[in-house]
Structures are given as C-alpha cells and as structure tokens.
Write a structure and sequence with these properties.
Elements lengths: L7 E5 L2 E5 L6 H15 L25 H6 L2 H11 L2 H8 L4 H31 L3 H24 L12 H16 L4 H19 L10 H7 L8 H9 L5 H22 L13
Antiparallel strand pairs: 1-2
Helix pairs in contact: 3-11, 5-6, 5-7, 5-11, 7-11, 8-9, 8-11
C-alpha cells in the first residue's frame, strides 16, 4: 500500500483515508487537514531543541556567526530566493495552493522522517565512538524526535505501520544525502540540518505580512516566523563547534541541503527539480 500515486489509500477499522487527486474537497476538508496537522504533527525537521550543551557564556567575541555566514553566502541567497518563489510557497502565501499539493507535501515530509532515522542513529553512534558526546547527543535528540513524530503520524492517520508511506524523488534524495554524510563525516551532519532550521523562518518572515490571516495556510507562516529574540539552538551549536577552517566544506554541504529543501517545495507542485550544479556551485 503506497501513499504516493493516484488512488493512494489506507484503511483502519471503519475509517478510510485516501491520498489522491480527488481526496480533498473544498475549504472545510482543507481546514480539517491543516488544523489536525498543525496541532498534532509539527514537523520535527524544524524543531527547537530542548537541551543545551553549550556553556552559559555563548558569546563569541571577534567571531562572526558561522551559520549566518553560510546562510548569507551569495549562492545560498540564490537558492533561498528560488525556494521563496516556488509555486508551493507562493501558493500558500496567496491562499491558492491546491490542497492536494499541500497534502502531498505533508505525506512526503512524513516519508522523509520515517526514513531519516537511520542516518541520525548511525551518526550518533559514530560521534560517541570518536569522543564527541555533544554531537552524539544532538543526533540522538533529532532521531528521537523523528521516532516520536512517526508514531504520532501512524496514530493520527490510523495506519498499521509506516510501510505504506513511500518517498518521492525529492525526499529520497534528501535522505540519501544525509545517509551518505553520516557515514563519510558524521560531524558535519549538523550542517545538513541547518537549511531547514534557517530557511523556513526566513521565508515566513519575508512573506507573513502579505498573508491574509483568513488564508487557510496562514498557520504555516505563523508557526514558522522567526524568533526575534534569539537564534535557534542548532545555530548556536554550529557557531560554537565550527571554525573558519570548516567553512569551505560546510558551504558545499549547506548548499546541497538548501537545494534539497528547494526541491522538496518544487516536487510538491510537480515543478522540475534542480540539479546540484544548476547554481554554479
């Protein structure tokens, strides 16, 4: 049973949910799906970590923010602008996004979470062996957030298991990228986590003032708008543990992650996916 193409449906007890081109009908069903997703199933890809492995003094005199330098790189700006202009994001901002496309995106987000656990578990183990407990803890927390989300997704939508949720090309590329990185150099996996953590708030902050509060997708922008008081703990983590010597390698990893985020948005509306080389990296 695959939640991916045409008549994708799953059954449980007396309920039948169907992910297809004819599943969502009108604003009432869309509102139900959005509200249920927002209340119970916040994507763990952009969680705020509830732990802190850094010293109380988190200031870095004379040092620029490593994570912000990655985000403000010239190529990064091109990619994040392309993400903001994607049909998916613009459709949400204007309230014209096909509910099927939103539903498909949510299913693919879940498919990613189901399949990404292995990379973070492996990376956590590698970091423990290499004597980097802070990195190991970070990856274990991320893995557990995915596992918790996976259990809640199955419960919320009354699935027997996660086998029926199949990855599309964008999700599959994203998982493959993080899996390879966890085996090649697990320390840099946290750099691959940054694009989602930084991109969503930036997009929400850029567009929320133009989004009507009655727009059924307004909640996405409200939930993801940037915290004006502080950087995310993941950004602080990266800023503390990475140095200018790590910049060149980190940029390559960060850019690939940004492109994966961009392709995730584009795949939802059947837009052509970008090759890594498109942005002349």
């Amino acid at each position: 049973m695959n939640i991916l193409l045409d008549m994708r449906k799953f059954q449980s007890q007396n309920h039948c949910y169907q992910f297809s081109s004819h599943f969502f009908y009108g604003p009432c069903i869309l509102f139900y799906f959005l509200e249920r997703s927002r209340r119970n199933l916040k994507s763990p890809r952009k969680i705020k970590f509830n732990f802190n492995v850094l010293p109380q003094d988190e200031s870095f005199p004379g040092r620029s923010s490593f994570s912000q330098d990655l985000f403000n790189n010239e190529t990064s700006i091109k990619i994040r602008n392309a993400a903001k202009e994607s049909k998916f994001i613009q459709g949400m901002a204007t309230g014209t996004l096909d509910p099927d496309d939103y539903g498909g995106y949510m299913v693919q987000d879940a498919a990613y979470c189901f399949n990404a656990v292995g990379a973070f578990d492996y990376a956590a183990q590698q970091m423990q062996v290499q004597g980097k407990p802070e990195f190991s803890l970070l990856y274990r927390v991320q893995s557990e957030s995915y596992k918790s989300y996976n259990q809640e997704f199955v419960k919320t939508w009354r699935l027997k298991n996660t086998d029926g949720v199949v990855m599309g090309p964008a999700a599959e590329m994203y998982v493959g990228y993080e899996s390879a990185l966890s085996r090649q150099d697990a320390r840099f996996l946290c750099i691959a986590m940054l694009p989602c953590t930084m991109l969503w708030p930036w997009i929400a902050g850029e567009l929320i003032d133009s989004v009507d509060e009655k727009n059924p997708y307004y909640g996405w922008f409200e939930d993801n708008k940037p915290d004006t008081n502080d950087k995310s703990r993941l950004e602080k983590f990266v800023d503390f543990f990475f140095t200018p010597e790590d910049k060149e390698k980190s940029l390559l990893i960060f850019h690939e992650g940004l492109i994966n985020e961009l392709n995730f948005f584009r795949d939802a509306c059947d837009e052509t996916l970008y090759y890594y080389s498109y942005f002349n990296l």
